[in-house]
Structure formats: C-alpha cells, structure tokens
Design goal:
- The protein has 463 residues and is an alpha/beta fold.
- The protein folds into 2 domains: 11-137, Leucine Aminopeptidase, subunit E, domain 1 (3-Layer(aba) Sandwich), CATH 3.40.220; 145-460, Zn peptidases (Aminopeptidase).
- It is 33% helix and 21% strand.
- Helix 5 (105-114) runs parallel beside helix 6, helix 6 runs antiparallel to helix 11 (255-269) and helix 7 packs parallel to helix 11.
C-alpha cells in the first residue's frame, strides 16, 4: 500500500495567470442594466449579442468585438459571492482572461474554485480558463484559500483504497514538513496506552490500523486554536451494516478530517498569529471477527464509559477521545468538523453547515462571517432536555439514541459530555455537493472552512 500524499494541482497554475501576453477582456454586465447596455451598442453588435441569447443573467456570457479586439461580456446579478465568476472558467474557451471591472476577493476566489476538477484517475476533457488576478485584489490570500479548498475536495473525492488511515497520516505528515510543524502519531494498540478505547474499537477490525494524528504549529505564546476532524476513511456501518445505497458514498465519511486539514493548511499558509493544534482521529469502520459489537461498553480518554447501541454511530466515538485530548491544554477555542448524522442533512440539507456551539457570542460571530464570505452556517440547539435519550443503564452514556427524533442534537449532546471548555463549536456537515453550482462542482466540498478562517483572521489578526 502506498501512502504518498495527494498531489493537488497548483491552483496558481491551473486557475490564474501572472503575465498574460494578450488576455481576452471580460466585462461584467448587471442583469438589471442589460437593456440600457444593449441599446448603447451599435446595431450590428446588438444583433450579435441577441443571436447568442445573452440577457446578462448569471452564468451567461457572450463574445463581442470592439475597437480594442476580442472581449467577453458576462452576466452578473450584482451579488458579491462565489457564483459571480464561478461558472466562467469551465464554460469560457480555454485561454487567458483579464477583468475590466473591479471585483472583490470573494468573486476572484469564486473563479479559482470554479476551476476545480478531480483528475487523479481521469484526464479532464479540457483545461480551465485562466484569470489575471487584478492588482487591487489580495492574490496570495485568494490562492491560499483556493488551494486549501481544492486540497479538501481532493481528499474527500479520493476513494478509500487510496485514502485509508495511513494515507491521512501521510497527508498530515506532509503538511507538518511543509510548514515546519511538530507532528506525532499514535497507532493501533498504542491508542489503548493513551486511553483512547473508543477510537481503537472503531478501527481495530480494519487492515489499516486506527491512529490519532497530532500536529502543532506556531508560536507557543500565541492564542491556542485547536481543530478536530472526524477521519472515518470508509464506513461500512460495522456489524450494524449499512444497506448498499447508504454505503455507496462513504468514502466521504472522512470529510471532517479533510476540512480541518484544509483549514490548517490555510492558517499556516497565511501565517496567522495563533498556536495551532490539529487532531485527526482516523479509522476505517470495517467488519471482521474482532469488530466492536452492539452492547459492548467502551472506555474513553475522558474516563466515561460508552455503551454501544449502534456500530454505525461510530464517528462520535472517534471524536469523543480526540475532543477530550483537545481540552487538556486549554485552548482559546475548539472547532470540530464531522460528517456525523443524516439528521443534520434532513434539518438543513446538503448545502448548509449545521453548527452547534456552547457560546452565544461565538456562534453569532461565526454566522456573520459565514454570511460575509458565502460559506453559510446555521446554528442548531444543544437542547439539554434531550440528554435523557442517550442515558445508559449499564454505562455513563449510550452512543446512539433509540429515538428517531433529534438525531443531530443528541449526537452533539454526546460530544458535549467529553468537552470541558466554554468555547467549542461542532460542525455536522455533508462535505459533498450533491449538485453542481457555479464555483461548487458536484463532489467533495469544504464547508465551514472559509467562515472559520475569516473568524480567526478577524479575531487574531494577520501576521
């Protein structure tokens, strides 16, 4: 088994161009201004635009010549978001382009995200069009954000055969080497010595051993920020095996780990003045003679015992040990990401990040940053009244409620029992686009990544 890291193409090369010789110009036309703009053109030009069925609606574009040569006009609804330019890189003809209009960093980021193609196993049908980043935009930050997002997407899109726990280890090790971070890993039965009985139990039936990946970076005197990501590299459901239609896309069950790896990359690439810790509990939930069983009682790092109601509620078992460890060095804030429950998808769908938070001010700040950066979050309640659903008669807590109600909330309440911290955020995300949108192609997706990065940059400042 090879454990080389994923080779994410450089977004700086595939999406952007530094010094094009003669780029094709792009002019944005607001939908509401289309009629006025059209009447300003010569009669022949009006006819040419109309023959292309261009009405300046979002994602529409048309070619046009003027006294300076070839140009493109693109429809725009006036919104400052990822979609503004996100559809253009793979719909415009291949080549180099330059904008005639001032745009935001977010819009240029949308261009970069719209260039994404997963090419590990299949050559793309075409190359993306490349954009000259305007001088007034922050090129370095845009490229770092796009690179972090594309790294996250690549990790999620890679099938389990090439994204086992050892492969996730290689990713984090490579990240540590790139940014001169400290890195350590605890594997297999060593997890029992660390008292991570829950993480060990989930992964012990797999050929590729479970492990806890632990990276630290930054000045120890800076504020501590800890990221935790669920790294279930494939989820069969365990002995409570999933039906085929539910198992089909379980390569994405390490989407939480992918998101925190991408976010860690961005924090370090942008040199935020924080003391970063990245914890990735990684395991495959496989089936073998030594698989953990319904009715088993597991011992956790925090000392709480957990009765297993359902082996398919395994992600929270990885997270509970990692979150307990995360609290030990008393960071300023803890963020965890996980593809945890179908109930969250039922509540908010596949395109919103369900957010649980035990601090009202922090939750409000994150929601605002999500809105500002087009990375939407929706707060869900940690309703303490539902704790009765995860009570156990033989252990401190049961891992899955018998009730069909409030599944995302009871999962959050389970995790909260392992968190001794007053600034903790839990994201229950889909980590996968089920449809293609401008700048957001179908497949693996970073969710809540840019929102949290914006919050961190605003709170702790640039380096």
């Amino acid at each position: 088994m090879t454990t080389e890291k994923t080779q994410t193409q450089s977004i700086a090369d595939t999406a952007f161009v530094v010094a094009p010789k003669k780029p094709i110009r792009i002019k944005l036309i607001r939908t509401e201004d289309f009629d006025q703009w059209l009447t300003s053109l010569a009669t022949d030009a009006q006819s040419w635009v109309q023959r292309q069925n261009f009405a300046a609606k979002p994602s529409q574009w048309a070619s046009l010549d003027d006294s300076e040569g070839e140009m493109v006009v693109a429809g725009w609804d006036g919104a400052d978001n990822i979609a503004s330019l996100g559809s253009l890189p793979l719909s415009l003809p291949e080549g180099d382009y330059a904008l005639l209009d001032a745009v935001s960093d977010l819009q240029v980021t949308g261009w970069g995200l719209g260039c994404y193609q997963f090419t590990r196993y299949k050559k793309p049908d075409r190359q993306a069009a490349r954009l000259l980043i305007p001088a007034d935009n922050n090129a370095a930050a845009i490229i770092n954000i796009c690179t972090a997002t594309c790294l996250t997407r690549d990790l999620i899109n890679t099938p389990a055969q090439d994204m086992a726990p050892s492969h996730l280890e290689a990713e984090v090790a490579a990240l540590a080497e790139q940014f001169d971070a400290h890195y350590q890993v605890t594997r297999g039965d060593e997890l029992l010595d660390l008292e991570c009985g829950a993480l060990h139990a989930v992964g012990r039936a797999a050929e590729d051993a479970p492990r806890l990946l632990d990276l630290t970076w930054g000045n120890p005197d800076h504020p501590k920020v800890t990221l935790v990501g669920k790294g279930v590299t494939f989820d069969s459901g365990g002995l409570d095996i999933k039906p085929p239609n539910a198992m089909r896309w379980m390569k994405k069950d390490m989407g939480g780990a992918a998101n925190v790896i991408g976010l860690a990359y961005l924090v370090m690439a942008q040199a935020l003045p924080v003391r970063l810790r990245l914890l990735v509990p990684a395991a495959e939930n496989a089936i073998a003679g030594n698989a953990f069983r319904p009715g088993d009682v597991l011992h956790t790092h925090k000392g709480l015992t957990v009765e297993i109601d359902n082996t398919d509620a395994e992600g929270r078992l990885l997270l509970c040990d990692a979150l307990s460890i995360a609290c030990e060095d008393k960071p300023e804030v803890i963020f965890d990401y996980a593809t945890l429950t179908g109930a969250a998808r039922a509540a908010v769908g596949a395109e919103l990040s369900a957010m649980f938070c035990n601090h009202d001010g922090l939750a409000l700040d994150l929601h605002k940053h999500g809105e500002d950066i087009d990375d939407p979050l929706w707060r869900m309640p940690l309703h303490q009244g539902y704790n009765f659903m995860i009570e156990s008669k033989v252990a401190d807590v049961v891992n899955s409620a018998a009730s069909p109600y409030a599944g995302a909330i009871t999962a959050g309440l389970f995790l909260q029992k392992f968190v001794e911290h007053d600034r903790w955020v839990h994201f229950d995300i889909n980590a996968f686009n089920v449809r293609s949108r401008p700048g957001r192609p179908e497949g693996g997706e970073a969710m809540g990544l840019r929102a949290v990065y914006n919050y961190l940059a605003a709170t702790y400042g640039a380096a």
